Fold this sequence. Notes:
The protein is α+β, with helices and mostly antiparallel strands. Strands 1, 2, 3, 4, 5, 6 and 7 form a 7-stranded antiparallel beta sheet that branches. It has helices at about 75-90, 105-120, 175-190, 205-220, 235-240, 260-275, 295, 305-315, 340-350, and strands at about 1-5, 10-15, 15-30, 30-35, 40, 45-60, 65-70, 95-100, 125-130, 140-145, 160-165, 195-200, 225-230, 245-250, 280-285, 290, 320-325, 330-335, 355-360, 365-370, 375-385, 390-395, 405-415, 420. The protein is elongated, with a radius of gyration of 25 Å. The protein contains 9 helices and 24 strands. The chain has 3 domains: about 1-70, Clp1, DNA binding domain (Jelly Rolls), CATH 2.60.120; about 75-275, Rossmann fold (3-Layer(aba) Sandwich), CATH 3.40.50.300; about 275-428, no CATH class. It starts with a strand and ends in an 8-residue tail after the last strand. Adenosine-5'-triphosphate (ATP) binds near residues 12, 45, 100, 105 and 254.
Amino acid sequence: MNKTVDAEKTLLVDGPASVIVTSGSVEVFGLLANVKNKIVIREGKRLPFVVKEKATFEISMGEGANAEEVDGDTIPHSWAMALEELLKIETRPVVAIVLGPIDSGKTSFCTYLTNKLLSGNNKVAVLDGDLGQSDIGPPCTVAYAFVTKPIADLFSLEAKNAFFVGVTSPSNAQEKVIEGLVLLKKEILERGSDFVIVNTDGWVEGEDAISYKVQLVEKLNPEIIFVIQQNGELTPLLNALKGLKPVLVESPSAIKQRSREKRKNLRELGYIKYLKNAKVQSIPWNWLKIEGNELFSSYKTYEDIKRAREIYSLLRMKPLFFSEQKDKIFIVIGRNRWINKDNIEKVENYTKKKVILVRKGEEEGLLMALYNSDKKFLGIGVLQEADYRKKFLKILTPVSGEIATVILGKVKLDKNFKEIPVFAEEEI
Ligand SMILES: Nc1ncnc2c1ncn2[C@@H]1O[C@H](COP(=O)(O)OP(=O)(O)OP(=O)(O)O)[C@@H](O)[C@H]1O
Ligand SMILES: [Mg+2]
């Protein structure tokens, strides 16, 4: 479909769609769109094409896509003012952090700042601290990228490095997220950058969220804090940050809110981005350091054969796998094996420890991160199977080369990389 749009109008395109600007002058979050770059809009996303001079568009629309003209520029004036504030800072490097609720335009504002800074010949890095709606690294990670040319969507960037947290919501992993971001910020500064734009998750309301955001700000120690606000809902956060003089930025009114389902779908595109061309690798457990999961992390614990025999006899079966820890005992049995509850109780009474019964197959689909022996993040993978007898892990991953450590997450994916609910988690 071709479309002509006059100057001083904005074409809002809802994905899935792709757009080529064939003539005229058009900006997308500060990127000058031209005939040479095809701009892809993912499902659940909307991009504003701000027409500076009468322009023609070639638009391909997928199912559910939409293109609509509106008057004026949908980028709030306060975004340009924010850029000015940022440029007033004379020291380098400048770390800027962006805070705001979900669907407030955080990612778009980061994209806008990045593009505008690039046109001023600055070296720019984006540090993505949003686990659930990550733009740069795989979902469940925080990550960064250096940006060398203007972009319409941060999603098109490849992560330079990432830090795996293993969950989609920061509320259960606040310290880990902060640890990851501090580490990555340090790495960016060591590699050299004029500006570091830090994006964050949308968990900003309520006491816990505010204390987490204040801590994050304290630890990252940015030169400037931007807070995107819709209707005054962030007053408590602003009060908590008062001494640090946050700069208020408006949330665009043309934003398209996304449902929880759409957010999940967008996340799944993130898994696909980092799992394409994945192959299955079988790796012996004892070649790996396994972290993040008590059961697998414990396989090296010393096993007292006599005691094990005693326990098997109380259970009246030999399990597939058995691991005794300080306060609990993991017992893994086959998918269809039956085990008598009374026998488990007998083991608990005998050992004075809690028995955790695991069925083979429960591990399938767990998301994991893979690292080399220098602790460099290599990529993500999905656990296909744990062979408890031969002590092998079968991992689906595009990572090739030496894998020394794996960290298991708490998210599970099915064969199409769709999330399967496992642990009740509040979703952001
Ligand atoms: N000025 C604008 N005009 C039209 N659409 C916009 C504008 N700014 C942002 N959008 C669109 O609104 C949606 C939400 O914006 P964005 O993704 O930047 O918000 P966010 O706060 O990062 O959301 P999340 O919490 O999901 O990370 C996106 O599809 C984005 O492209
Ligand atoms: Mg975002």
